[in-house]
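Students often ask why inverse folding is considered easier than folding. One informal answer: many sequences map to the same fold, so there is more than one right answer. In these notes we will look at a single instance of the problem. The structure comes first.
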C-alpha cells in the first residue's frame, strides 16, 4: 500500500511527536509499504533516510521559534495526491497544512486517519492567549470529524476528545527502544561532570524547556529533592523558548541542551530520579524512556504515568495537578533513589512495550479505513 504521512514536525526536530512519527513511518516501510512524508523541514544532511519528503512553506509558532506551522493549499495537496496516488493518509497536525490536506483528500475520496498528538488547546494561556480554549476545541472537533478515525496515545486523551464530540476515536499507544534506553548506558564520567559519584543521587528532567511543561513546579521539585540531598545535581536535558530564562534564574542546575540517540540514552541512565511535572501531555514518551533506563520516576497520575507506574513498586504518582503532593512524592523519591527493586521493576515495566506492536496496530488502522485486512507475516 501507499501511505502519506502529513506533519509539521519530523526529524531533525527533537520532540516526542517527531520521534514517534519517524518510528511509525519507518515501521510501515519495513512492513513492505511505500511511505512518503509531507512536512516543513528537510532531513539532516547526515541522516540516512529512505523516505521521500515533500517540503511545504512554514512559519514559526508564535512564542515558540523552535517549532513550525506548515502552510499549503487544497489544490497543491490535490496535485501531490495525483502524483503519489496514496491509498490512505495519516494527518498528524491540525494546522493549515493539515486542514488543506484533509480537504483535498475529501475532494478526491482518499481515506484519512488523523492524529491528536499535542494538547495545543491547553497551551493558549501559557502563550498569552487566554480564554480561547473553547474556540480551539470547536476547531479541533471540526477538523477531526472530517476524518474516518482519530488516533491519540492515551485513554485519558481519548475520553477528552469524545467529550468534545469527536467521533470514532481510537487509542494508539507508544513504544520504547529498550536496547537504546537501558541502565547499561550509565556513564560514571558523565556523572562526574555533574559533580556526582555513585553515592550521590542525580535528579533529571528531559523534555522541552517551555511554559507548558510546568517549569515553575520543576524548579520547586528540584529544590525539594535537594532538601533531602543538598549536594544532589539537578540536570535539565532539552531546549526551548524558556531555556535562557531558566539558566538565568537557576544557574545552580546543569543544562545539557537537546540530546538524541546514544547521548540522550546515556543522560537518562546516568541519572537516578526522573521528575516530570507536566500536566499537558497526550502521552509522555519521556516517561517510557526514563523507566526503560531504570530511573525512579515522579509524575502526575494521568496519561503514560497512570498506565505505567504502580506507586511504591516502580515509581511514584502524585494526584493530578496537586503540586504539594508532587513535591511530597519528590521528597519520597529522593529518599528511595537507590531502591534497586523499584528501579528494576521500572525497567521491566517498559521492557514489554516495544514499538513493533504499535506499528502493527498503526498499519491495521490505516488498512481498515481502506477496507483491507492486514496481512501479518507468519
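Output (designed amino acids):
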Amino acid at each position: 500500500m501507499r501511505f502519506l504521512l502529513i506533519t509539521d514536525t519530523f526529524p531533525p526536530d527533537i520532540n516526542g511527536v517527531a520521534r514517534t512519527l519517524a518510528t511509525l513511518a519507518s515501521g510501515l516501510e519495513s512492513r513492505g509499504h511505500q511511505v512518503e512524508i509531507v512536512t516543513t523541514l528537510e532531513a539532516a544532511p547526515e541522516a540516512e533516510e529512505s523516505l521521500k519528503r515533500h517540503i511545504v512553506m512554514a512559519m514559526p509558532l508564535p512564542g515558540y521559534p523552535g517549532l513550525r506551522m506548515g502552510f499549503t493549499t487544497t489544490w497543491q495537496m490535490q496535485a501531490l495526491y495525483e502524483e503519489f496516488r496514496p491509498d490512505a493518509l495519516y494527518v498528524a497536525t491540525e494546522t493549515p497544512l493539515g486542514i488543506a490536506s484533509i480537504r483535498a483528500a475529501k475532494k478526491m475520496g482518499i481515506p484519512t486517519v488523523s492524529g491528536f498528538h499535542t494538547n495545543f488547546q491547553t497551551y493558549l494561556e501559557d502563550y498569552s492567549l487566554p480564554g480561547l480554549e473553547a474556540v480551539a476545541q470547536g476547531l479541533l472537533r471540526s477538523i477531526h470529524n472530517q476524518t474516518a478515525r482519530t488516533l491519540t496515545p492515551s485513554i485519558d486523551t481519548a475520553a477528552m476528545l469524545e467529550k468534545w464530540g469527536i467521533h470514532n476515536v481510537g487509542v494508539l499507544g507508544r513504544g520504547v527502544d529498550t536496547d537504546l534506553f537501558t541502565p547499561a548506558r550509565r556513564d560514571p564520567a558523565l556523572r562526574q561532570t555533574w559533580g556526582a559519584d555513585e553515592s550521590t543521587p542525580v535528579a533529571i528532567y528531559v523534555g522541552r524547556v517551555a511554559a507548558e511543561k510546568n517549569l515553575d513546579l520543576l524548579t520547586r521539585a528540584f529544590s525539594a529533592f535537594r532538601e533531602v540531598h543538598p549536594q544532589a545535581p539537578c540536570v535539565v536535558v532539552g531546549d526551548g523558548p524558556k531555556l535562557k530564562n531558566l539558566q538565568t534564574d537557576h544557574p545552580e542546575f546543569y543544562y545539557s541542551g537537546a540530546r538524541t540517540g546514544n547521548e540522550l540514552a546515556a543522560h537518562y541512565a546516568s541519572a537516578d530520579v526522573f521528575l516530570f511535572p507536566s500536566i499537558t501531555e497526550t502521552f509522555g514518551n519521556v516517561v517510557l524512556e526514563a523507566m526503560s533506563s531504570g530511573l525512579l520516576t515522579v509524575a502526575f497520575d494521568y496519561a503514560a504515568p497512570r498506565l505505567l507506574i504502580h506507586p511504591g513498586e516502580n515509581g511514584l504518582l502524585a494526584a493530578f495537578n496537586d503540586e504539594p503532593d508532587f513535591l511530597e512524592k519528590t521528597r519520597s523519591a529522593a529518599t528511595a533513589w537507590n531502591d534497586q527493586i523499584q528501579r528494576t521493576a521500572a525497567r521491566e515495566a517498559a521492557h514489554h512495550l516495544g514499538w513493533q506492536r504499535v506499528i502493527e496496530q498503526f498499519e491495521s488502522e490505516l488498512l481498515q479505513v481502506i477496507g483491507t485486512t492486514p496481512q501479518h507475516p507468519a
